[in-house]
Amino acid sequence: MNTRSEALRVLLGNWRGYNTVPAPDLYPHQWSWDSAFIAIGTRHLSPLRAQRELESLFGAQWDDGRVPHIVFDPATPDEGYFPGPSFWNSKSVTGPGVAATSGIVQPPVHALAAWEVFQSDPDTAQRRRFLQRLYPKLVAWHEYLRCRRDLGGAGLVSIVHPWESGMDNSPAWDPALARVRPVSMRRYRRRDLDHADASQRPTDEDYGRYVRLVETYRDSGYADRPEVHEFAVEDPLTNALLAASEEAMAGIADEVGAPAAPHLAELARLREAMVARLFSGGLFHPFDVRSGELTEVGSVAGLVPLVVPDLPVAEELIATATGPRFRAGELGVVPSFDLTDERFDPARYWRGPAWFNIGWLIRRGLLTHGASKLAEVLRSGYLEVAERAGFREYADPHRATGLGAHRFAWTAALTLDLIETR
């Protein structure tokens, strides 16, 4: 297989004229952080298309600054995906002139993606005023997270649904989810099981909890008041990506003639708050706002803060990444959960499999902190998985067998980026 040609084939096949769907069968709409990762890879195919990917997503931004995690394709029937647009009922808040969307968010990797896309073709971006148009939208997005989502009062972003983490089914959410009474899934039809094996997906009980949280948030008018949310967790991955994106925002601000200093100050503030609040035992952990306790579990999200520049505990994170819990140097990929934990499952969604976007972020963090040899091990390892397993949604970290959706766009996009950059 010519890996580069096949990656391009997936990206071209999933393009819908203004955005790229993650996977035509299982995910037929536009997803927020998917589009950011897709843009990072697509810049090697077409910087203009990468710009349009991000512009399309931010065209559905809400007035309060939030960037919804799904923008629904009006050409796809409502019943083609669950929960679909009628379930979210976003237009009751946004009004009829805005695209139908979900009401929750995903991790803020978008400024980082925008800066990478700009640097791939500054001339086209400047001619189109790409950053000038996107910068105020990014500012509003970060402001929403910083202000509306500081539910714990410690200056960190809280997610209010496991889907907002992007790592939907991680064991990291089990303690907080246990408080949530699941909806009976007899009321709904799960569409994900039409396209993926049930052994690789969340259980019906957990899915029922996800639906309950959406119903509560929707029925509140998507209000970000602490009392609305049974689930409110300060996620290390979300906060790390916000910090890394603030560094990118400083570069964007310089380019558009805005002050960079506030973004660098926010980066420093987030870095300090994360270390003080979320770091313990060689790994970052979620903080459960409702219980007031750190949830000390071995999620790979706890390694993603390596993307934060000048992180004072980077060496400890690298030791954890290469130690028995993740064995990154040996496997060449990073499992999504602690290998030594009895809850580790190499095939079930976010409870063990390796994901390309997480590997890409950790490799970036390793390069940021001078660990170039381990970064190259991961680059080679993920490229080998892509060649052996194809562009699957995730992979068994031991056997490198592909799992989940086929023709998965961010896998193809980030494979292309790994090929093109060293």
Automatic annotation (TrEMBL):
InterPro entries: 6-hairpin_glycosidase_sf, 6hp_glycosidase-like_sf, Glycoside_hydrolase_63, MGH1-like_GH. Pfam families: MGH1-like_GH. Residues 27-411 form the Mannosylglycerate hydrolase MGH1-like glycoside hydrolase domain. Keywords: Glycosidase, Hydrolase. Belongs to the glycosyl hydrolase 63 family. PANTHER family: MANNOSYL-OLIGOSACCHARIDE GLUCOSIDASE (PTHR10412). This is Mannosylglycerate hydrolase MGH1-like glycoside hydrolase domain-containing protein.
